[in-house]
Amino acid sequence: MERRSYGRGMSPPRIALVTGANQGLGFALAKGLATRMSPDDRVLLTGRDPDRVADAVARVPKPVARLEGRVLDVRAPASIERLANELGAIDILFANAAARWTPEDDNTEVIDAVYETSNVATSRILRAYGPILRPGGRLLVVASSLGRLGHLPASMRSRFPDDATLDDVDGVLADWARAVHAGTAQSEGWPAWLNVPSKVGQVAAVRAVARERSERDVADGTLVAAVCPGLIDTDASRPWFDDMSQAQTPEQAAEALLDLALAPRIDPAWHGELVRFGAVLDWHGPAPDREPAH
Asked: What pLDDT, on the 0 to 100 scale, is given for residue 5?
């Protein structure tokens, strides 16, 4: 790779990474970053299938930034750690990978994919990439407004206290996954729709990590947050909703997230929160209408 020198007042090229970027929102995010970032910047479009990654990169005809397709399997710890070690530093990360399933699927058959892709992987990404996030960077976990305590029964909300650590959150989600496998999740108080505990767990993980690093991040303009893009018309969301007339395209949904990732300054109140269209969704607030995973 060509070595470049940067004079006083000049910033080194930025590095952006999107997981689950072969299609849908992830592809729109990677494409948007590659279009809106500078020629020296790098955008890593990642997925676990090399052929689909290569095809996705080919569908971005004129990237401005240096668009690279990379294989990253978020369900493989070594894959996450290997890329983090290779990069050494990162400026923008969208943790967007999600499992796909339908209302007809048996929860016990899909729980591993849901839990490992959305929850275990989110925690591993926070642990691997949080320490290498450059000052002023953005680490954004794509979640949903379902990730609010109001979507859980009152009896379950105490499982996610405000002072929970990431290890605490991991333990609660592991208990949930075991209960789904055992067929006891609903009797224990967990919602039947897997998206609710999974998204609550994602937001809780972000809150735990952000709280520990809040003072430093706020001081240098770094943002660690969960983001909710709203209802999106995709193959993954259509089976769950009868009326998609108000849904956004992936490209439309990506715009607010890209604005947040690329903004030169951010509102400190967003740090550690769930942000939708530039506003914080109250972690303790009432449950809004159902939304898909993205």
From this structure: 36
